[in-house]
Structures are given as C-alpha cells and as structure tokens.
Design goal:
The protein has 4 helices and 5 strands. By secondary structure, it is of the alpha/beta class. β3 (about 55-60), α3 and β4 form a beta-alpha-beta unit.
Length: about 140
C-alpha cells in the first residue's frame, strides 16, 4: 500500500502554515513534508507534529536569497560557507523534528557557466552533508529540479 505525505507548503493553503498540520491529520495523512521550516522554531513545529500524531517525511535546506534568484546554494562556487551553514541548520532541524531525510538544495547554474566547477562544488558539499547526516543516521536527498 503506498504511503503519502501531505506537502504543507502546497496543500491546505487557506490556513496559516502552523494550522496546516491539523488539516493534514483531519484529512487522514500520517506524514507531512514542506519546503522550508526556518521561519518557525523547531519546537513549534515539533509540537504540531506531536499534537496531531504526524511524522515529518522531508524538508529542504534553505533556498538562500530567492529574491536574487537563488534556489539553494550547495552547488554554487564561492558560496561553500553559506551552503554548509544551510546544511548544519537543516541537520539541527532534522534532529529536533525527528526527520530522517533532508533534500540538499543545489542552486541554479547560470547559463554559460562552467558546469564542471558547479558540479565539483556540489559534490564537495554533498560529501560534507553526507558525513554530517550519517553521523546521526539521517539521509540526504538530491532532486532533479
């Protein structure tokens, strides 16, 4: 039997984010996911998960400065410090929220850029993330977006 998680960033948008946990539980979901938890204290999200008997299936590392066109920073040469700070913060949330996996946001490669540099940066940051997450028996994910 397939298992589904309600994406609270996309579903139940008629309610404020923090109220969507109740809506997901009322709709019969046992798990949720969302894009980014960082506007809320992990303890606030954890309380909602516990209150509604939900597990957290997935969330993402920070997108960075979306107004400037960023959609993650793990593959951006010269932004390794930011990417690793994003990874460390995501791990803190994963531990607090008992989430087993986190998507590492790569970022956008500009047209005409040296793809090999971006790929090498991404691989280095994925190694960093893999080591950090594996030490806590957590998984990292990548998505072809």
């Amino acid at each position: 039997m397939p298992r589904f998680a309600a994406n609270l960033s996309m579903m139940f948008t008629e309610a404020p984010f923090i109220e969507r946990f109740a809506a997901a539980a009322e709709a019969g979901f046992q798990a949720v996911e969302f894009l980014f938890p960082y506007d809320f204290a992990a303890s606030e999200i954890k309380a909602q998960l516990s209150r509604h008997n939900l597990t957290l299936a997935l969330f993402n590392t920070s997108a960075g400065d979306t107004a400037a066109g960023e959609w993650g920073r793990a593959a951006l040469p010269g932004r390794e410090h930011d990417a690793r700070a994003d990874i460390d913060l995501a791990l803190e949330y994963a531990l607090a929220l008992e989430c087993e996996q986190v998507h590492i946001m790569a970022g956008v490669v500009p047209d005409g850029a040296d793809g090999a540099r971006y790929r090498a940066t991404f691989i280095d940051n994925l190694r960093y993330a893999a080591d950090r997450f594996a030490a806590h028996d957590k998984r990292i994910l990548i998505e072809a977006l």
